[in-house]
Amino acid sequence: MLSSDKGPHGTNASGFGVAADEAGQTYEVTKLSEEHGFLLYQDRRPEVGTLLRIFPNHSCAVMAQSDGFVLRHANGHSEDHVVSARGNFI
């Protein structure tokens, strides 16, 4: 799930986030359209069906639409968290 919001002002973030494959190849998410994301690639295009991990530039609206999320640390440890404010917009 991605948001069309590019993130906090002043971060100079480009695009909408980064996608990465299992080998660590990264692709900038440059455009969003309904159910589609468009990736910029340099050397190799991901094959159809490749699983990609998405790292959004901005996730506030994304988090509000989710029941929970997982934080994964560099050491491999992970933590499950519940989004207790889901759907509670002011």
TrEMBL record:
<feature type="domain" description="D-serine dehydratase-like">
    <location>
        <begin position="3"/>
        <end position="69"/>
    </location>
</feature>
<protein>
    <submittedName>
        <fullName>Predicted amino acid aldolase or racemase</fullName>
    </submittedName>
</protein>
<dbReference type="Pfam" id="PF14031">
    <property type="entry name" value="D-ser_dehydrat"/>
</dbReference>
<dbReference type="InterPro" id="IPR026956">
    <property type="entry name" value="D-ser_dehydrat-like_dom"/>
</dbReference>
<dbReference type="InterPro" id="IPR042208">
    <property type="entry name" value="D-ser_dehydrat-like_sf"/>
</dbReference>
